[in-house]
Amino acid sequence: MSSTLFRTKKVEQSILDTEEPEHALKKSLSALDLTVFGVGVIIGTGIFVLTGTVAKDNAGPATALAFVAAGVACALAALCYAEFASTVPVAGSAYTFSYASLGELPAWIIGWDLVLEFALGTAVVAVGWSGYIQSLLENAGWTMPAGLGSREGADTFGFDILAAALVLVLTAILVVGMKLSARITSLVVAIKVTVVLVVIVAGAFLIEGKNYDPFIPKEQPVEAGASLDSPLIQLMFGWAPSNFGVMGIFTAASVVFFAFIGFDVVATAAEETKNPQRDMPRGILGSLIICTTLYVLVSLVVTGMQNYTKLSVDAPLADAFKATGHPWFAGFISFGAAVGLTTVCMILLLGQTRVFFAMSRDGLLPRFFSRVHPRFKTPHRPTILLGVLIAVLAGFTPLTELAALVNIGTLFAFVVVAIGVIILRKSRPDLPRSFRTPWVPVVPILSVCASLWLMINLPAETWVRFAIWMAAGFLLYFLYGRTHSRLARGDESEEAPSAGGGAA
What we know:
Number of strands: 0
Mean pLDDT: 83
Radius of gyration: 22 Å
Structural class: mainly alpha
Distance between the termini: 18 Å
């Protein structure tokens, strides 16, 4: 049993699978396309949606430090992703990397985790986009009918029709082709970066020093009885961390970490890249550096413009300009945010469909979903299926119920990839690596520790929901995936000689 659960798939076989005509994706992306994809998905939710929430609830003006902490954790993981993505240029990101290094069951677990991460991420961003569109409509004097607007804070039945419609439109674009997606993303990213720069420059003239006092708000301990609403470490160690203070910064980092998941989405496009060995590291690391810098600057400006206790949750940047008497800037930011969040939503949906496609091509999910469109050469079947499901999810689910669960899925993927780098270095030292993670195993170990630290700062309720999703994944694997995988159907040459992720 253990030998089948931890059978690994050869890197060479994974690459050969990408050449099967019925299951081959079109290679059309360059280093610039990847960087644009990275910037397009990273810049969005962290600034346009979550900044107000973490500033009010966790870190105050020190939200900038939370972005730094999250950025450092991501940089460690990005170095590991860059090595894997250039060595194993196959759709699926952490799922494919795990299959080559850790074995089938760990690969299934991480693939199942990524499906959840990207699905909820797409829904979160769609809900945030809807909030900005509604803000623009209100500026124009028009309000969405009751029951068809944002679900955030709603206590009655309703459906966010704008969020659902966005997901369906982007699903159609992804079915048509990657190059069209890249062109649309390039245009939208240019608009989005312009908006961010305007926020930094214009907002810098509206900063009031008193809003930074105190820069790190005084600690406000969480009530010891609120086990499911407080961080997991309360349950583990018996003490409640503060909402603010130094621990508040780390709690905030666990939340804003959601804003950095873009670079691991870039890795899912490795199979559709013209020169992945050279371009994947550039796209992953370049987009992360650019976006971290912009995040820190924007959070400093926004918390300097308006006291952190008064920042809004739905549209913190636009409302901060309104509060300082500059409604024109508010409208401009709402427009830029609404346009910009479309690329975040689209690229997250792209990432999810590629993971689902890779799992179905390996037989762990029905092979029906692994056939590409005869004309567009895109995985149209999983794209349509997942697009419809996510549209429904975005329509019914409030933002706060989704964001934390996305974070834990991302961090779990980072842990697995970092461990996989160490194992594959030992099991396959012969593999050509155009990019090598420096200081192995030190950097991967630091990446694991940083990710685990952020994970334990997430609410315990998030862990409960994550555990339920993982339990469902285990059940599905043993009922279907274990016996239907391509390795299980008799291709013994692809099996590892021993369990535990030995030589593939």
